[in-house]
Amino acid sequence: MKWFYKLKRNIRIIITVAVWVLFFIVTSIIGNSLGDNTDNMPLWQAIIVLLLLAVATAVTVFAVKARRLEVKATTKQDEKIKNTIAKDSTPSDLGVKLNYDADLSNFSDTPDIVVTLIGNRNEEMQSNIIDCKVGDDVAIEYGIDKDLYLCSVDGGDIGYLPEKVSDDMQGSLHLEVADISQDDDTDVYSIKVAIYRPRRIQLPLKTKVVGVSFDDRQDCIKESKVGDPLTIKHTPLDKYPEASIIVNDRTGKTLGSVKSELSHAFLGEFGDGFVLCGKILDITGGTDGKEYVGCNIKITDVAK
Q: For the purposes of burial, counting CB atoms within 10 Å of the CB of 244, is it exposed (0-12), middle (13-18) or buried (19 or more)?
């Protein structure tokens, strides 16, 4: 009876009433034809009466159940609307978590996007832009009037994020002034904002040193100790532009490399020339007949 539940309430009521009216009409006709001789009702008439009663009862039950489901759905919709209104009441509830004074090491060194703000040619915003400098933290709030995010620095509005950017403002973000320029012909100032997202690679992480059999790296590992500080730095090669090496800070010698997949990830996350810090977790091999030694490390953070 799903089709019945999908009908409008008025139609369900009409169907229910119609079935009961039909039941009473039929029973009235049969009753009039029998007169006082109801004890001798033919079987076929009794079956018709019972079928109509069953149908009328079933339709009534379905109508009541449909109404209950309708009320329940309406209640859920009302709650959803209330929640939506509550979310729209504050900028922080619009899917954006801003990090003005956050530890920037948790964010990518490369901005996710750099965008030129719009709607800022009025005198007040132009004055605010002039007072800004590159690197200033940028705050945003949802501007209901324009259905865009309004940016500000130290409380002074400096423009709106374009619609295509505003629609994608989700998650944890850090915004800062990226560039300020002046048009030579109009003397109008424009300002660009860099939007940073959290790093896709979360440090610290553990990994295995690869390429330990090349050059004198076996001897370098044997000279190393658990806990030795490390420097992991991007060292591009012609065939492997993502390559990065691992150097023992105590001995000054190269232990090996970071595996290619992780190096690619580091390059995308931290950019060219990245330098990371770490330490030796343990040295493997070299005993029980194992000639070669290996090394497991922990990459802890970005070099300051």
A: buried
Q: Quick one: which H or E segment has residue 174? A: strand 171-182
Tokens 């990830």, located at residue: 265
pLDDT greater than 80 at residue 160: yes
Structure tokens at 183: 């048009």
Q: Which two tokens stand for residue 264?
A: 């690619």
The rounded distance, in Å, linking the Cα atoms of 70 and 36 is: 46
Residues 127 and 132: their CA atoms lie apart, in Å, by 9
First-residue to last-residue Cα distance in the chain: 68
Per DSSP, the three-state class of 31 is helix
Residues shown for the chain: 304
Token pair of 217 as six digits: 């790296």
Among candidates 279, 268, 294, 277, which has minimal Cα distance to 208?
294
* Strand boundaries in 124-241, DSSP class E: 139-143, 148-153, 156-160, 171-182, 189-196, 205-208, 229-234
**CA-to-CA distance for 240 and 132, rounded, in angstroms?**
41
Q: Taking the alpha carbons of 62, 63, 65, 70 in that order, is the dihedral positive or negative?
A: positive
**Cα(297)–Cα(304) distance, rounded to whole angstroms?**
19
Which residue is it, tokens 């810090």? 277
pLDDT in tens, 3-48: 665 677 788 788 888 888 888 888 888 777 766 665 667 777 778 8
